[in-house]
Amino acid sequence: MKIHVSKSLLINILIAILIIPVLIFGGFLISKDRDRNSTPKIASSECLPTFRDGGGPYYLPNSPFQTKIVPDGNNGEKLIVGGYILDTSCSDPLANSVLDIWQASEEGEYEDEYYRGRIKTDKNGYFKFETVVPLGYGEGTAYRPPHIHFKVWLDGKELVTSQMFFDDVKGREGFNDEFIMQIEEKNGVIYASHNIIVPDFEI
């Protein structure tokens, strides 16, 4: 027995086959965007103000505003860092604050043009930038494990200077949790999450 299927029905089936994956994937992207469109809720036990630290000798003022701070064609391991800048209560975002970052290259060297930059947070205090995993440098007791320096500015005023470290320093003396990024590797890219809780300050 032959079953007759109209041309219009075939067209509708084909459209459904094509559009359903798009809707599913699009919904996933929208869901991910929603996560970034609100300030995260942080438990009081995890609301640890960022530890103030020295900036070291390699800071340069007025770095360019850019979300990618490495040159094209670099040989480093790709790293994407994202997070929120919040006030001491961990409930209010510092919207339109500036994250001023600088780091060593994948060869452990500081440069004037690259491996540094400034990123402005959105209305929820969110920031994101692309870089590479820096190489540690120094020897013996002078060894510095891989890290990223940063300053937070608001309305032209410096609020805090500190550093972000990778989880390989976890448990070592002097490396508190508020220093350490949460790391995940996916498809050859390192993703790091790090919220910056600014200590008490006055505008």
UniProtKB/TrEMBL annotation:
An example of a GO molecular function for this protein is: oxidoreductase activity, acting on single donors with incorporation of molecular oxygen, incorporation of two atoms of oxygen
InterPro entries attached here? Intradiol_dOase_C, Intradiol_dOase_core, Intradiol_RC_Dioxygenase
| Keyword Transmembrane helix listed | yes
Q: Which Gene3D superfamilies match?
A: Aromatic compound dioxygenase
From the record, give the transmembrane residue ranges. Answer: 9-30
Record's PANTHER family?
DIOXYGENASE, PUTATIVE (AFU_ORTHOLOGUE AFUA_2G02910)-RELATED (PTHR33711), INTRADIOL RING-CLEAVAGE DIOXYGENASES DOMAIN-CONTAINING PROTEIN (PTHR33711:SF10)
Q: Which residues form a coiled coil?
A: none
Positions of the Intradiol ring-cleavage dioxygenases domain? 56-180
Keyword flag Ribonucleoprotein: no
Q: Which family does it belong to?
A: Belongs to the intradiol ring-cleavage dioxygenase family.
The species this protein was found in: Candidatus Dojkabacteria bacterium
List the Pfam families: Dioxygenase_C
**Keywords on this record?**
Dioxygenase, Membrane, Oxidoreductase, Transmembrane, Transmembrane helix
**Name listed for the protein in its UniProt record:** Intradiol ring-cleavage dioxygenases domain-containing protein
